[in-house]
Automatic annotation (TrEMBL):
Localisation per UniProt entry: Cell membrane
Organism: Streptomyces ochraceiscleroticus
Topology versus the membrane: Multi-pass membrane protein
Protein name, UniProt field: DMT family transporter
Assigned protein family: Belongs to the drug/metabolite transporter (DMT) superfamily. Small multidrug resistance (SMR) (TC 2.A.7.1) family.
Amino acid sequence: MTWVYLGIAIVFEICFALGTNATRGFTRLWPSVLTLLAAGGGLYTLSLALLGLDVSVGYTIWTGIGGVGTVIMGAILFKEKLTLARLLSFASIIGGVIILRLTSV
C-alpha cells in the first residue's frame, strides 16, 4: 500500500500545483477550496506513504514526479512550451526517481 499512497499523493500534488494557477492568487472561492483540499490530501497520503518509506526517498519521488506531472499537464492544459532543455531535465528527474526506487528495496 505504501506505493499506492505515494501515487495518490502525487496526483494530489499535481492537482494542487495546477489548482494554484486557477485560484488567481486565492481570490476565486471554489478553485481555492479545491486547491487547499488537494494540498491537504497530498500531505495526508504522503504521510501514510512515509510510514513505509524513508522520507528522503518518498519526498523526493513525490516532488520529482509531481513536478514532471505538473509540467506535462501544464503543457496540455495551459499550452506551456516543452523545449529540448526541459525534456532533458525531466528525463534526469525520472532517471533519478527510478534509481531511488531500485535502491530503496
